[in-house]
UniProtKB/TrEMBL annotation:
<keyword id="KW-1015">Disulfide bond</keyword>
<feature type="domain" description="Vitellogenin">
    <location>
        <begin position="25"/>
        <end position="663"/>
    </location>
</feature>
<dbReference type="InterPro" id="IPR037088">
    <property type="entry name" value="Vitellinogen_b-sht_shell_sf"/>
</dbReference>
<dbReference type="InterPro" id="IPR015817">
    <property type="entry name" value="Vitellinogen_open_b-sht_sub1"/>
</dbReference>
<protein>
    <submittedName>
        <fullName>Vitellogenin</fullName>
    </submittedName>
</protein>
<feature type="signal peptide">
    <location>
        <begin position="1"/>
        <end position="15"/>
    </location>
</feature>
<dbReference type="InterPro" id="IPR001747">
    <property type="entry name" value="Vitellogenin_N"/>
</dbReference>
<dbReference type="GO" id="GO:0005319">
    <property type="term" value="F:lipid transporter activity"/>
</dbReference>
<keyword id="KW-0732">Signal</keyword>
<keyword id="KW-0758">Storage protein</keyword>
<dbReference type="GO" id="GO:0045735">
    <property type="term" value="F:nutrient reservoir activity"/>
</dbReference>
<dbReference type="InterPro" id="IPR050733">
    <property type="entry name" value="Vitellogenin/Apolipophorin"/>
</dbReference>
<dbReference type="Pfam" id="PF09172">
    <property type="entry name" value="Vit_open_b-sht"/>
</dbReference>
<keyword id="KW-0325">Glycoprotein</keyword>
<dbReference type="Pfam" id="PF01347">
    <property type="entry name" value="Vitellogenin_N"/>
</dbReference>
<dbReference type="GO" id="GO:0032355">
    <property type="term" value="P:response to estradiol"/>
</dbReference>
<dbReference type="InterPro" id="IPR015255">
    <property type="entry name" value="Vitellinogen_open_b-sht"/>
</dbReference>
């Protein structure tokens, strides 16, 4: 008995030792699992709508070889969710389930060894979307089990890519079951299964990302693993993935994705027969494969079969809807058109072109939308159109820019695009656009390929070398600008060959200033990719005092784009202390000063370094002139929103010249860790600068007629300039990419002078335009533009792609009808128009519709389930008038007929929805507002939110002109205790501005306004006696006001002496309403000038025109040592009056004073003033003003600004019973005292 017991114990011990937990599958077994996976999108708040999808199926795994297994799926169920949790449920979509099941019936297999899923194979008929769903199921088997460690971390591949996994295990010795938990940090995967496009030109800002993220993801797996002698067996597994997303900072409220999947073992049985070999092909490993289907637009779903007739019909519909008006409801049709065009093969696109080529409107819609076919097809189509000269200049330029900038930047397409560089063009502007656009394509290619291969930039490098050999200035400038667009680090060596003193092995003696300037700016985008190399070159340029000052200043600008260290800033500062060129010093100092106040994250460290530099330089350079070269920056940034904006302006001058060497303006937008360089404009007035030289003869600076005459006298000498020097050069950049630059030279000026000269005859452009107007002119223009298509796609644990997309679409439209009559008619030249009376009748409209979508959810070719923000903002400005112009008599008249319809000039609407779409029935998409209705809010019992639902309509009505201007808005917001930024924007928003006819009574309707007439007479007749009396009265009243506010006798006499001159009529203007009964009512304004010696005095009289009206408003101004104005209104300009005066006192501490005084004002103004006065103490406290209760002058408010130092001011504001003071307030601009200027 003892022997038997001992044998049992030994046998039990052996059995225990042979049990294993590490995972494997037995090829001779058949495993059957029940699988369920679902995903939901919403806010994660009670009673808020959500969108979701759920997939259920039975998964059967059977062995084929020792490490190869086949999958079979049965009982496939697909359901969608679109509603409020707790009140709605998943709803079966049987047809879509059948569609998925049909693919899952195809052969699918995988290899599996020691807990690692290897190669996945599937039939070619199985789509990538379905293979990814299979990856989501197989992801449960991709797990590393270590039975000898309780806690461990591994970086391993999974469906999300190569990510860090944290494991924790616990073994139930009695049940022989291991509970394993695996947490995957998806946010920080080293090699993430993701795809991003559309944001290449938005520079990443790492410092901003440190302040907050916009996306955070994590996955938690839990396993029950049963130990067996062969290997561990998963009996149950669950996964929960949470992702939080916001367009702002994660700390401030988020959208939420919750994805759950579960796998439960139901049976394990022996395999009774061999698995047949079936035809399959490799589909990759367990890592999610991004499906790059550009036709699968997330904000729209439609069936894409037979696309050509659908696209043709859409083009016709869009033309019809947007020709004579702008139909904002057709924006979705434009998105559908982009989808359809993206699936049409090249030969059918070419056929579509031939069908619309001779239809102007359909041709335009086709060309402006086919550019969104972002692959080799658009390049082939564009090449054909350019070679056959089918496009005019404007069409070619717009199509090239948009096609190249929206092209998918793959190596293959980059090589295809190279052929455009060697094509022959009959228009220099078109070739220039091609070269610049190729550089932009290289930049986007490098944004997604690091390090960027040199082959990408090689064609432009070859062009640069050839331009140097040929010494072709314009070609050098063009290639350098293209290299600047490309921003390729390997182009630095080619660029430095154009920079004097940088490359000692290159002779740049012949480099012209324009070429050097282009070369410096060519490093602007390389600054973020290779900052050290750019810093070395720009520092050499800046320290080279033999260079022209504008080149050194440009170098400093590019240097600061690299975000230099405090050491490099200190080096620049030390050299500035010894600098002799005050233009360079002024520029650098003002740039440092602007940067020291910067709030944007990208300048976080640079602003500190700049502050130190300012303190070092201030004692020596704080009193520099405001009129020298300078740099100005203004910016703002919110950590809560992770959004900001920055504007910069640069003026580059030479000491010996009046006109600047260059002017540049930039505007950047900061959002969620990126910087988008929205727009940049630059002007280089090279020829004008030489023309004006160091000064303008007889120019006094008071902007009088003599000053304008002095400028005109200089401009008349433009013919003396060299033929090869442009008068003016301009460039424009958008998203950091230069797409246009041009020179305006002597030839251009001569053509303009000939065309617009009064002696221009029948062959001139102006004559032809006038002839067209006489015969009747009609023009229609529509420009649809998909401005932004930014997509971020990432894997989920379910194998479904979660997508964050932003779409911004604009449709610009304009329609003009015009017909002119000229009496007497022109016979010889266009100058005769100046002696004729012209009547112009015209109607039309101008406007746009801007639409924005933010999509967050699942987007596949089978279904979409997401949260979607949609905004739409249309503007339409119609017109219909008859104009009469008599240039000789200086009389102009506009007549507007009555409109009986309401016109919505502007509107804005937005809302957030939970959406569900499927390809089986895309027209029956489900969409409900994300936020709860007021009824559902009132039913909440816990965590009650705040409700806000203002609805208001306000109208300003003019009974005289029979017009009303109305604004209306409605907001719906539901938010909780957390005042997060995201919740401020969620909900329904509508605002509209409308113009409509108005009549207050039936009596007025009978005499409704038939037309509105505007008249202007720029050469009025002599002043009538009644008007002269009124003018004298105004001047006496003005005199009394001035003398009462003066303190010295001289100040009292001076306005008295100014009352002597006679008023001279300058301008007369009338705005009249004409009714059907010929009744005239409206307003008349007369402007007078009174010569008074050294003083400049003007009078304005506004009168109400009507049967028995005597209301008038009188305004008198006078400018001498002080600037003063007196306003009076009422019956004959009485009894109400207000006066304003200001004075500038120069000296060691310049002072600016202003006084507002009122004698008598209407009661409504008094009441409004008292309401405003209640808020003054609180606002003063917020703005850090000190307050003193003092008895000051009644019925008067005064303010004084005193220059306390070179960069600060003291402010004092006096109210009747309160005085506010603030000292050492930072000055918005440099202050120069009289002594300093001298």
């Amino acid at each position: 008995m003892r022997v038997l017991l001992l044998c049992c114990l030994v046998a039990l011990a052996v059995c225990q030792k042979s049990l294993r937990y590490d995972l494997s599958l037995n090829p001779n077994k058949i495993y059957e699992y029940q699988y369920e996976g679902w995903v939901k999108f919403g806010l994660g708040k009670p009673n808020h709508a959500e969108s979701g999808a759920r997939l259920k199926t039975i998964v059967t795994i059977m062995g084929a070889q020792s490490d190869t297994f086949h999958l079979q799926f049965s009982n496939v169920v697909f359901e969608e969710f679109n509603g409020v949790p707790g009140k709605s449920d998943f709803v079966a979509v049987n047809q879509l389930a059948q569609k998925i099941a049909a693919q899952l019936e195809k052969p699918i297999g995988f290899t599996y060894t020691a807990g690692n899923v290897g190669e996945i194979k599937a039939s070619p008929e199985v789509s990538d979307t379905v293979v990814n769903i299979v990856r989501g199921i197989l992801g449960f088997f991709q797990v590393t089990v270590k039975s000898n460690q309780d806690i461990y971390e591994l970086e391993e591949i999974g469906i999300h890519g190569k990510c860090l996994s944290s494991y924790a295990t616990k073994i139930n010795e009695q049940e022989k079951v291991m509970d394993l938990t695996q947490v995957v940090d998806v946010t920080n995967c080293r090699e993430k299964a993701m795809f991003q496009t559309g944001m290449a030109t938005a520079v990443e800002d790492k410092v901003s990302r440190q302040r907050g993220e916009s996306v955070f993801s994590t996955v938690k797996y839990t396993y029950n693993i049963k130990a067996t002698e062969e290997a561990g067996l998963i009996t149950k597994a669950q996964a929960l993935e949470l992702q939080f997303f916001t367009p702002f900072n994660l700390k401030g409220g988020t959208f939420k994705m919750e994805a759950m999947k579960e796998l439960v073992l139901t049976t394990v049985k022996d395999k009774t027969q061999d698995t047949p070999n079936r035809q399959m092909e490799s589909r990759g490993n367990i890592v999610y494969k991004v499906v790059k289907n550009w036709a699968n637009v997330p904000i729209m779903m439609q069936k894409l079969d037979d696309p050509v007739p659908k696209a043709t019909e859409l083009i016709k519909r869009l033309v019809q809807a947007n020709t004579n008006q702008l139909d904002s409801t057709t924006t979705e049709d434009a998105i559908k058109l982009y989808q359809l065009l993206r699936v049409i093969p090249l030969e059918k696109l070419e056929k579509m072109w031939m069908e619309v080529e001779h239809n102007r409107n359909e041709r335009n819609w086709f060309l402006q939308t086919v550019v969104e076919v972002n692959d080799a097809r658009i390049l082939a189509l564009l090449e054909r159109l350019l070679r056959e000269h089918k496009l005019n200049r404007l069409e070619a330029i717009t199509v090239i820019v948009r096609a190249f900038n929206h092209l998918e930047a793959t190596p293959e397409l980059l090589r295809e695009a190279e052929k455009f560089l060697t094509m022959t063009y009959n228009d220099a502007m078109i070739r220039r656009t091609v070269v610049l656009s190729f550089g932009s394509l290289v930049y986007r290619h490098c944004a997604y390929n690091t390090p960027c291969p040199e082959e990408a930039i090689r064609p432009l490098l070859n062009m640069a070398e050839e331009s140097r050999r040929n010494n072709n200035e314009m070609e050098q400038i063009l290639v350098l600008k293209a290299l600047g667009n490309a921003g390729h680090p390997r182009s630095l060596k080619a660029i430095e060959k154009f920079l004097p003193g940088v490359d000692p092995n290159t002779n740049q003696a012949d480099s012209k200033p324009r070429v050097v300037s282009a070369a410096v700016q060519a490093m602007r985008l390389i600054a973020t990719r290779e900052p050290h190399g750019v810093q070395l070159r720009t520092l050499k340029l800046f320290l080279n005092r033999e260079l022209k000052p504008e080149i050194r200043m440009l170098a400093l600008m590019i240097m600061f784009d690299t975000k230099p260290s405090i050491g490099l800033v200190s080096t620049v500062t030390a050299h500035l202390l010894e600098e002799r060129d005050m233009q360079v010093v002024n520029f650098a100092y003002t740039y440092f000063k602007s940067l020291s106040r910067s709030m944007t994250p990208d300048n976080h460290f640079l602003s500190t370094a700049a502050s130190v530099a300012v303190k070092i330089l201030a004692p020596k350079f704080c009193h520099l002139s405001y009129y020298r070269s300078r740099a100005t920056r203004m910016d703002w940034f919110s950590d809560d929103y992770l959004i900001g904006t920055a504007a910069e302006a640069f003026i580059l001058k030479r000491a010996s010249q009046v006109i600047p060497a260059g002017l540049m303006v930039k505007w950047n937008f900061h959002f969620i860790g990126r910087i988008l360089q929205l727009v940049e404009f630059g002007i280089r007035p090279e020829g004008l600068r030489d023309l004006f030289g160091a000064s303008v003869p007889e120019f006094r600076g008071d902007m009088s007629m003599s000053d304008f005459q002095a400028i005109y006298d200089v401009l008349k000498k433009w013919e003396t300039l060299p033929d090869d020097k442009p008068l003016l050069s301009v460039y424009t950049r958008a998203s950091g990419q230069e797409f246009f630059f041009n020179d305006f030279n002597k030839d251009f000026m001569e053509r303009m002078m000939r065309e617009f000269s009064p002696t221009a005859g029948r062959d001139s452009f102006v004559w032809r335009m006038i002839e067209q107007l006489i015969h009747g002119f009609s023009w229609r223009g529509v420009l649809p533009f998909l401005t932004v298509e930014a997509r971020y796609i990432q894997a989920t644990t379910l194998g479904l792609p979660v997508e964050i997309s932003k779409y911004y679409h604009t449709v610009n439209a304009m329609s003009v009808n015009a017909k002119a009559a000229i009496s007497p008619q022109m016979t010889d030249n266009v100058g005769q128009l100046l002696d004729a009376e012209t009547t112009l009748k015209t109607d039309g409209f101008i406007g746009y519709t801007k639409s924005f979508w933010l999509f967050y959810g699942i987007n596949t070719d089978l279904f979409q389930s997401a949260v979607e923000l949609k905004t739409k903002s249309p503007i339409t400005i119609p017109w219909n008038f008859v104009g009469k112009f008599n240039t000789r008599e200086r009389k102009f008249e506009l007549e507007f007929p009555r409109s009986n319809r309401e016109v919505e000039v502007f509107s804005f609407s937005s809302n957030v929805f939970a959406i569900s779409r499927d390809i089986v029935n895309p027209e029956a998409a489900k969409r409900i507002p994300l936020l709860p209705t007021e009824q559902s809010v009132s039913q909440m019992t816990n965590c009650r939110p705040n409700k806000w639902h203002p609805v208001e309509k306000m109208c300003t009505k003019s009974t005289i002109f029979g017009v009303s201007l109305c604004s209306e808005y409605e907001l719906r917001r539901v938010y909780y205790q957390e005042q997060y930024p995201l919740y401020h924007f969620l909900g329904f928003t509508h605002f509209a501005l409308k113009v409509a006819p108005y009549s207050s009574s039936r009596a007025q309707q009978a005499t409704a306004v038939e037309k509105i007439r505007l008249e202007m007479d720029a050469s009025p007749s002599a002043v009538s006696e009644s008007m002269r009396q009124l003018l004298n009265h105004m001047r006496r009243m003005s005199k009394e006001v001035r003398t009462s506010s003066s303190t010295s006798r001289e100040q009292q006499d001076r306005p008295t002496r100014g009352m002597e001159g006679s008023p001279v009529p300058v301008l007369n203007f009338k705005a009249l309403a004409l009714s059907s009964s010929q009744r005239v009512e409206g307003y008349e304004a007369s402007f007078y000038y009174t010569p008074e010696g050294e003083r400049q005095s003007t009078q304005l009289i506004v009168s109400h025109v009507g049967e028995s009206s005597n209301w008038k408003m009188c305004v008198t101004t006078a400018v001498a040592a002080q600037a003063k104005a007196h306003v009076a209104w009422g019956e004959q300009c009485q009894p109400y009056s207000v006066s304003v005066s200001s004075a500038y006192l120069s000296g060691n501490k310049p002072e600016l004073k202003a006084v507002l005084r009122w004698d008598r004002v209407p009661e409504t103004m008094v009441l409004n003033g008292k309401r405003i006065a209640k808020y003054i103490p609180g606002m003063a406290f917020l703005l850090c003003f000190t307050q003193e209760e003092e008895k000051n002058a009644m019925q008067e408010v005064s303010a004084s600004v005193i220059a306390a130092s070179a960069d600060s001011i003291d402010v004092k504001i006096k109210f009747p019973e309160l005085t506010l003071r603030r000292e050492a307030l930072p000055s918005p601009m440099p202050i120069s005292s009289t002594e300093t200027e001298q």
